[in-house]
Specification:
It is a single chain. The chain is α+β, with helices and mostly antiparallel strands. It has 4 helices and 3 strands. It has one domain. The protein has a 3-stranded antiparallel sheet, with no helix packed on it. It is flat. This is Pyridoxamine 5'-phosphate oxidase putative domain-containing protein. It comes from Dictyobacter halimunensis.
Length: 80
């Protein structure tokens, strides 16, 4: 979060295929809304995945407690 406060520019690599031959990247600008925590629906949505990785839900909720909102600026796509 410290880095986003200093420089809100982000680049996200989005997985689009199992073999990784279709690549999508998103450039954007991130903001950290004051007082907003990660919505509980996020943790419910990914609860099964956390369990598969043997991650404790309470620990994940503490570690990833800050909401990050991203405004997309540009999408980049290519296929190999």
């Amino acid at each position: 979060m410290r880095n986003l406060r200093h420089n809100p520019a982000i680049l996200l690599a989005l997985e689009t295929a199992e073999n990784g031959h279709n690549v999508v990247m998103m450039e954007g600008e991130a903001i950290l809304p004051d007082g907003q925590v990660t919505p509980p629906i996020y943790f419910r949505k990914y609860a099964d995945g956390f369990k598969e990785l043997n991650w404790e839900l309470e620990a994940i909720a503490r570690q990833f407690s800050q909401t990050v909102r991203v405004t997309p600026i540009r999408l980049i796509h290519w296929s190999l």
